[in-house]
Design brief:
Blueprint: E1 7-12, H1 19-27, E2 32-36, H2 41-53, E3 63-68, H3 72-84, E4 93-96, H4 101-113, E5 122-126, H5 131-142, E6 146-151, H6 154-162, E7 173-177, H7 184-189, E8 193-196, E9 218-221, E10 238-242, E11 246-249, H8 251-269, E12 276-277, H9 279-286
Parallel strand pairs: 1-2, 1-3, 3-4, 4-12, 5-6, 5-8, 6-7, 8-9, 9-11
Antiparallel strand pairs: 10-11
């Protein structure tokens, strides 16, 4: 008799596989988690083949793999190499979400879309060269937004744009230096949407910044670790009007939607054996989850 348990192989690039990712997978309905830490490119094909060949075709939908960890570039390479290990119908479903970068970016975009379409909007992304920022830029441009990717280093911003996935519309994305006190108000009021995606402890603006944002429609802060990236936005804000009428989303407000999307995508892995979920595919599935 076939084993009907849903088994998730959790591939992590770090010394220890993420307890967060394991617990979310259990809450999403996985029966068994097989965590692997310090996974490298030389090991991944054998691990994937082990997942492919232990169950018959009719049961492969109950085996899936999740790619996480803090080494974003390696995690993506592991995911791509796994795709190349498949042949014909012999495959398992995969999800790529290193340190939650894909689900966080998708949740931020979906939060914005509860209030406006991104098509034709001016979007400013602070801390834009990191894993969440680049995914935000890719999705926003795909949806028709004009994107400015802000960084402390213009060359770094340009290099990040060059590494974006094929679905990103690079012609709509510009790398620029972070605004300073002299041009902050101009930047704010030339933007329809502002998203702060910097690392923990990076504060982009002073406490009174919202008073300068007379034309800004939506602001999103994704930094849950104090100090806030955008002071005056509260962590639990979910579409709260602040300042001069800016709709604000805080990290915990976005985080609730991120968790809903994360769990929904994990459940989707076990609905078929051919789902391959990276940034764009997670966004497309997220239409059903929030």
């Amino acid at each position: 008799m076939a084993d009907k348990r849903k088994v998730l192989l959790q591939f992590d690039t770090d010394q220890h596989a993420s307890s967060f990712d394991s617990l979310v997978a259990i809450d999403a309905g996985a029966d068994v988690i097989l965590p692997y830490a310090n996974v490298g490119l030389e090991q991944i094909v054998d691990l994937i083949h082990g997942a492919m060949f232990t169950r018959g075709l009719d049961d492969l939908c109950r085996t899936a793999a999740f790619f996480g960890g803090s080494n974003y570039e390696l995690s993506e390479k592991l995911y791509q190499r796994s795709l190349g290990a498949f042949f014909g119908p012999v495959r398992v479903s995969l999800m790529l979400d290193p340190n939650g970068a894909n689900t966080t970016a998708v949740a931020a975009i979906r939060a914005v879309e509860t209030h406006t379409s991104l098509d034709g909007k001016q979007v400013a992304i602070l801390g834009g060269t990191g894993p969440v920022g680049t995914r935000l830029a890719s999705l926003a441009s795909k949806l028709g937004a004009q994107v400015r990717l802000f960084s402390r280093n213009k060359q770094r911003a340009d290099e990040a744009i060059g590494r974006l996935p094929d679905f990103a519309r690079r012609e709509l994305i510009q790398g620029v230096l972070l605004p300073n006190e002299a041009n902050r108000a101009t930047v704010l009021n030339e933007s329809d949407i502002l998203i702060a995606a910097g690392g923990a402890g990076v504060q982009f603006f002073p406490e009174n910044w919202l008073s300068e944002a007379t034309g800004l429609k939506i602001a999103v802060d994704l930094n849950a670790v104090p100090p806030a990236g955008l002071p005056s936005i509260e962590p639990h804000d979910t579409g709260v009007l602040r300042g001069q009428g800016t709709v604000c989303f805080g990290p915990l407000g976005v985080g609730g939607l991120k968790m809903k999307i994360h769990k929904g995508c994990l459940r989707a892995l076990f609905e078929a054996n051919h789902r391959h979920l990276a940034t764009l595919e997670i966004y497309e599935l997220a239409q059903h989850y929030g």
